[in-house]
Model the fold of this input.
Amino acid sequence: MLDYDAEAEAYDATRGGTPRAEAAAAAVLGLLPPGARTLLDLGCGTGIVTARLSRHGLRVLGADTSYGMASMAAHRGVPVVLASGTRLPVRAGSLDAVSAVWLLHLLRDPGLVPAVVAEAGRVLRPGGVFVTTVDKDAAHDVGSDIDDVLAPHLTAAPADASAHVTAYAAEAGLRPYGEALFAGRGQGRTPRGAAEALLAGQYASRVSPRGITPEELAARLGLLPGQDIPRAEPTYRLQGFVRD
Done:
């Protein structure tokens, strides 16, 4: 797993920057109910998406467990708290919306994703919505030669699998009501970049080398042609759930 405190300053530049953040924010906004006024952004990271959500008449609060990430968000003008998604400093039934963009796929400990979804349900008012990315890592599987190399080593059960998240939401009193797709923007992988990300632990939520070391798997990526040519962009998926 990445050290997000150490990665905070460089994080946005290596994750699609402003174009990706604008696409994500637009997709989240499109799933909010009319009249929504309050939103909590779980795993807000550097606040690059959160800040854009706040420009549309929303009173927004960010929450993250990383001090480095939360500091970056605060420098963007985002009100932010250091808090776990399983124990939010928010009273029950008080929010119009909770968002979680590129978060659930990272939560690999057993029981953690259902606990976060349940906590989102707790703080939502009736009619409030939980909007989250699902199948995040799978979005990067675009049929490229990079995917062919990594395919035998993919995690069997992603933490943010859509069917599982939908089941957890139902247990929390949330039902599906819509979805949205948005482009990754600057996220087309290169073989060299994929090898570097693998060795840096950035694929920990998706790739678990089997019968081979990470270094050997990275070396296989290093044999692909067009080492610095980006493959196709991913398309991310947001699911919306409403509290009855």
